[in-house]
């Protein structure tokens, strides 16, 4: 929503700045939501891992959330 009006302006056309403003507003609103999601997902994984450490057995798997070789995802270690 931001790129199209900017591209239009760079090309010499008449850009729709209302569309760019709405896009900028959505981008600003999404930042705290993304931060809260990351914090809560890491907290959930930490809580899960703490529960696994209490179990008895030879294998103690650990689940991590974060960047992987292919992007963002879960890692399970044994």
User: Helix count?
Assistant: 2
Low-confidence stretches: none
Q: Sketch the topology as an H/E string, one letter per element.
A: HHEE
Radius of gyration based on Cα positions: 21 Å
- Structural class comes to alpha+beta
Shape: elongated
Alpha carbon gap, first and last residue: 44 Å
For the residues shown, what is the average pLDDT?
86
Strand order of the largest sheet: 1-2
How many β strands by DSSP?
2
Describe the largest sheet. Answer: 2 strands, antiparallel
Percentage of residues assigned to helices = 55-70%
Strand content: 15-25%
Word description of this protein:
The protein has 78 residues and is of the alpha+beta class. It is built from 2 helices and 2 strands; from the N terminus they run ααββ. Strands 1-2 form a two-stranded antiparallel sheet. The N and C termini lie far apart (44 Å). 0% of the residues are buried.
Using brief descriptors, characterize the structure shown.
78 residues; alpha+beta; two-stranded antiparallel sheet; 2 strands; 58% helix
Topology, please?
Blueprint: H1 3-10, H2 17-53, E1 62-68, E2 71-77
Antiparallel strand pairs: 1-2
In short:
By secondary structure, the protein is of the alpha+beta class. 58% of the residues lie in helices and 18% in strands.
